[in-house]
């Protein structure tokens, strides 16, 4: 996968040299390039911002450097290797929510281009114009306010690159993950069996794989009911068996009436 990132703070992306993402870059799974937006300015002060039309606080990113950056990184002409135009992703608090489903969708793309805004954001015409030539998605991490798009890009890239073939290796199985089966994970423990007076649950030391699986399922259901009732409400009713419903009932969680469990 090819990834281009444009930002006025390219140093923000130094962590992408490390760990599993760094290895994916070294072995060619991930071809990542970070670009300084100011390299597409022409004035002596390398200006990227100006005052907002209509008034209001703060500054807005000028369209001209962004236009040149996108022209350079998403050329109109089909390149000799026949590659297609990138998918443009623009972090914004006004974007659609980034989810694990979107991470899977993005992992299937061959070329992603991220535009990191700062200040009050990027002049909207940059996105309007880009949308005449390529797919553009404004994406939000969640309902809190950041200074700019850089941290959002780090999060999105970590979620996407770990789904690329060969990045995770044997370290984990993607289909057993919490956001694959729609529940939070059960708690995990390692040695020693007793630590500062706290015991590892007996069932996990029993060797009874049936009991362990049922215990983990019950723990996943009860902590999801307590912490993320929205996730329980979103479960397809047919995904819950009678023992699941009993576990939720013990946790005091009322399922909507009419759902018949297996
Ligand atoms: C990009 C500028 C800051 C945005 C005034 C100060 C994502 N979940 C998220 N929260 N915030 C962002 C985000 C914030 C950004 C930019 C993303 C560019 N800002 C501005 C408009 C209102 N603040 C985000 N993804």
Automatic annotation (TrEMBL):
Gene3D superfamilies: 3.40.1280.10, tRNA(m1g37)methyltransferase, domain 2. The keyword Lyase does not apply. GO terms for cellular component: cytosol. It is found in: Cytoplasm. Coiled coil: none annotated. Its main location: cytoplasm. CDD domains: TrmD-like. Keywords: Cytoplasm, Methyltransferase, S-adenosyl-L-methionine, Transferase, tRNA processing. It comes from the Bacteria. It is an enzyme of class 2 (transferase). Residues 1-232 form the tRNA methyltransferase TRMD/TRM10-type domain. InterPro entries: Alpha/beta_knot_MTases, tRNA_m1G_MeTrfase_C_sf, tRNA_m1G_MeTrfase_TrmD, tRNA_m1G_MTases_N, tRNA_MeTrfase_TRMD/TRM10. Its EC number is 2.1.1.228. GO terms for molecular function: tRNA (guanine(37)-N1)-methyltransferase activity. It catalyses: guanosine(37) in tRNA + S-adenosyl-L-methionine = N(1)-methylguanosine(37) in tRNA + S-adenosyl-L-homocysteine + H(+). SUPFAM superfamilies: alpha/beta knot. The keyword Methyltransferase applies. S-adenosyl-L-methionine binds at residues 117, 141-146. One of its GO terms (biological process) is tRNA N1-guanine methylation. Belongs to the RNA methyltransferase TrmD family. Specifically methylates guanosine-37 in various tRNAs. Homodimer. This is tRNA (guanine-N(1)-)-methyltransferase.
């Amino acid at each position: 996968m090819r990834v281009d990132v444009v930002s006025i703070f390219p140093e923000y992306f130094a962590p992408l040299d490390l760990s599993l993402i760094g290895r994916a870059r070294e072995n060619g799974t991930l071809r990542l390039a970070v670009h300084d937006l100011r390299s597409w300015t022409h004035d002596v002060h390398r200006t990227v911002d100006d005052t907002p039309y209509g008034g209001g606080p703060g500054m807005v990113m000028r369209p001209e450097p962004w236009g040149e950056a996108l022209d350079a990184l998403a050329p109109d002409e089909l390149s000799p290797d026949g590659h297609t135009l990138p998918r443009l992703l623009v972090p914004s608090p006004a974007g659609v929510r980034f989810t694990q489903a979107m991470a899977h969708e993005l992992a299937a793309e061959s070329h992603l281009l991220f535009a990191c805004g700062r200040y009050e954001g990027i002049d909207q015409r940059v996105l309007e114009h880009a949308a005449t030539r390529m797919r553009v998605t404004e994406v939000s991490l969640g309902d809190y306010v950041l200074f700019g798009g850089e941290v959002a890009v780090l999060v999105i890239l970590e979620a996407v690159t770990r789904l690329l073939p060969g990045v995770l290796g044997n370290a984990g199985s993607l289909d057993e993950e919490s956001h694959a089966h729609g529940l939070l994970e059960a708690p995990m423990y390692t040695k020693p069996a007793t630590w500062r007076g706290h015991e590892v649950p007996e069932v996990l030391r029993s060797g009874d794989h049936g009991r362990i699986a049922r215990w983990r399922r019950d723990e996943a259901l009860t902590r999801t009911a307590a912490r993320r009732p929205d996730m329980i409400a979103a479960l397809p009713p047919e995904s819950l068996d009678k023992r699941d419903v009993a576990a939720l009932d013990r946790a005091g969680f009322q399922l909507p009436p009419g759902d018949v469990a297996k």
